[in-house]
Amino acid sequence: MIAKETDIYKLHAKGDAQYLTFKRLDEFPELTHVFTTRRGGISTGCCENWNLGFNERDSAENRWHNYGVLADVMGTTVDHMVWTNQTHTTNIKVVDESHRGIGITKEESFHDIDGLVTCARNVAIITTHADCNPLFFYDSTLKVIGLAHSGWRGTLGKIGANMVGIMKEHFGCRPENIISGIGPSLCQDCFEVDKDVADMFFEVDEGYRALSYQKGTKYYLDLWAINRLILKEAGIGDENILCMELCTRENMDMFFSHRGQHGQRGTMVSCMMLK
User: Fold this and answer.
1) pLDDT above 90 (res 56)
2) CA-to-CA separations, 79 to 36, 143, 171, 262, in angstroms, rounded
3) What is the pLDDT of residue 54?
């Protein structure tokens, strides 16, 4: 069981739904954000019970109910949500009011997108997760929000830095005004890879070697620390980078884990919205 509250995050409950927020981001009344847990829905089996993924392991009826729970928690409706079509890229889409409902009440009109960013009000942007790093971004000065799905491929490609770049170029954001959070995902001890994957990281930045260790033929990389370094290099101040330090695989009573459940699992989401 995870702690109900730390200096970084707080675990909330609304009805049966349990979800996490960054306490620093809770300070902004114009912003709503959550990272869901697996508690709060009606799904069964390996998807028990707040499954928010689009997969055949769960019924459409269960998922639709679960989306409604998310909408209630966020204070919105499902037709104001924008869902991504994630394929472990570093592609980020700028969305606005015209994109409301895409991926849930409207057909997907963009593909291969692992990050969303907007300044539009009442547009709930969403990324999906079950071990990969959820990255949250907020510029409280210019009122711009962003979410990124950063698995090992996204981290290798520095999707976090890509988000900062788009926030700068498209919205005029200054990195020093951006607050970024890293949500529940695999800890270093649970992110086990072979030498070929580890070498990809070391080729990108030899400094990543210091953020890893080797045991036998396997390597263990600290993606939390690597993402923090990527965000710092992109100009975000260390004091503005928050990490919940919650491992999805080590806390499967609260989170779905692709590795821990051997692919037979449900899906959690990050969601942000400007009121």
Assistant:
1) no
2) 19, 22, 25, 32
3) 84
Q: By the 8 A CB rule, do 119 and 274 touch?
A: yes
How many helices (H) and strands (E) the chain has is answered by 5, 15
Pairing of strands 31-36, 81-83: unpaired
**Which is nearest to 61 in space by CA: 75, 47, 73, 74?**
47
What span, in angstroms and rounded, lies between the C-alpha atoms of 29 and 212? Answer: 39
Going from N- to C-terminal start, the domains of the chain cover: 9-186+237-274
239 pLDDT band (50/70/90 cuts)? very high
**Interval 185-237: pLDDT, tens:** 999 999 999 999 999 999 999 999 999 999 999 999 999 999 999 999 999 99
User: Going by DSSP bridges, is the β-strand pair 81-83/124-129 parallel, antiparallel, or unpaired?
Assistant: parallel
CATH, range 9-186+237-274: 3.60.140.10
The owner of tokens 């990543």 is 208
CA distances from 95 to 102, 119, 134 (A): 10, 8, 18
DSSP 8-state secondary structure symbol assigned to residue 46: G
Query: Token pair for residue 152?
Result: 């090992």
Contact 250, 37 (CB under 8 A): no
pLDDT at 55 over 80: no
Find tokens 């459409």 and name the residue: 60
